């Protein structure tokens, strides 16, 4: 959810969503422009400019059979803006043609090519720690991670899977926190060098902190290398209620979850300005991170 594409797309946004966005703004409001936003693997995301009064909102459209739109509407209702870090739900609907949500626009834009990567990783770490400190009573209604495919013991594969499964009891019994489920550099927004918001909440669940941490560390490794992954972890541990124990285990779980399909991330990185991360390069870096993490466990 980042840069706005300059070309007019061949298919327009869902008319009912446009009506809902305008009606929410006021009796005389109307949508005067809709621009497609790059990024994301399964949703079409639009920036809607509303006139009379002037405001901007975001529309996300999901294909038939994809529960993400319904999930995001439910999650955003529970989060209630999360102190400004998450969008608020404006309207949503689902039918046989798919689903959509209209949400508030957070300030800033996605940027995975920062001028100061160290600050970038630090902001990611401190923001995730803030999310994980959300009081559990406020999160009633969220699913458990282990009810999702991503949290299943059937998911791990590849060279790291055996060690992950050996530690499965530890994974199951680790304390639960608000888990974004896809916390990585493409799902945060920036105003200058300050992280201004977190988007794409359709997967949010209650799960162990290491699920998000390992995922974010791997993303930073793919983008910038091991040092920035460690900067992120140090920043997280500095302000977390409880510093992460055994980070290597959570790195291994991330490796085992992404062993199949890491090449599929190419379009997301390309849309956000990293065409150097080809399928071959992503697999090469995944293999290096796998071998590096396994070597630390021996």
TrEMBL record:
TM region positions: none
Leader sequence range is none
Boundaries of each Aminoglycoside phosphotransferase domain copy?
35-237
Q: Which InterPro entries match?
A: AGP_Transferase, Aminoglycoside_PTrfase, Kinase-like_dom_sf
**In its keyword annotation, does this UniProt entry include Transferase?**
yes
Pfam families, sorted: APH (PF01636)
- From the UniProt record, which GO molecular function terms apply? kinase activity
Task: Decide whether keyword Kinase is in the record.
Answer: yes
Record's keyword terms, sorted: Kinase, Transferase
Tell me what this protein is called: Aminoglycoside phosphotransferase (APT) family kinase protein
Which species does this protein come from? Prauserella shujinwangii
**High-level lineage:** Bacteria, Bacillati, Actinomycetota, Actinomycetes, Pseudonocardiales
């Amino acid at each position: 959810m980042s840069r706005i594409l300059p070309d007019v797309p061949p298919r327009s946004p869902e008319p009912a969503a446009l009506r809902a966005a305008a009606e929410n703004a006021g009796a005389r409001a109307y949508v005067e422009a809709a621009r497609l936003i790059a990024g994301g693997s399964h949703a079409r995301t639009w920036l809607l400019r509303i006139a009379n009064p002037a405001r901007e909102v975001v529309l996300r459209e999901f294909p038939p059979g994809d529960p993400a739109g319904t999930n995001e509407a439910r999650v955003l209702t529970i989060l209630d803006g999360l102190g400004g870090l998450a969008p608020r739900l404006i309207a949503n609907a689902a039918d046989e043609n798919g689903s959509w949500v209209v949400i508030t626009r957070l300030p800033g834009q996605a940027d995975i090519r920062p001028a100061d990567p160290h600050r970038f990783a630090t902001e990611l770490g401190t923001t995730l720690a803030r999310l994980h400190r959300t009081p559990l009573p406020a999160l009633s209604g969220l699913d458990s991670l282990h009810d999702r495919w991503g949290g299943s013991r059937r998911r791990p594969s590849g060279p790291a899977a055996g060690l992950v499964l050996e530690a499965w009891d530890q994974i199951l019994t680790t304390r639960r926190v608000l888990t974004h489920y896809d916390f990585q550099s493409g799902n945060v927004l920036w105003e200058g060098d300050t992280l201004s918001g977190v988007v794409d909440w359709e997967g949010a669940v209650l799960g162990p902190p290491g699920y998000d941490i390992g995922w974010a560390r791997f993303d930073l490794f793919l983008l910038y290398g091991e040092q920035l992954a460690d900067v992120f972890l140090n920043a997280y541990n500095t302000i977390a209620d409880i510093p992460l124990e055994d980070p290597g285990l959570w790195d291994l779980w991330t490796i085992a979850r992404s062993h199949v399909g890491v090449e599929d991330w190419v379009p997301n990185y390309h849309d956000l300005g990293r065409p150097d991360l080809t399928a071959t390069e992503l697999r090469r870096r995944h293999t290096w991170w796998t071998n590096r993490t396994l070597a630390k466990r021996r």
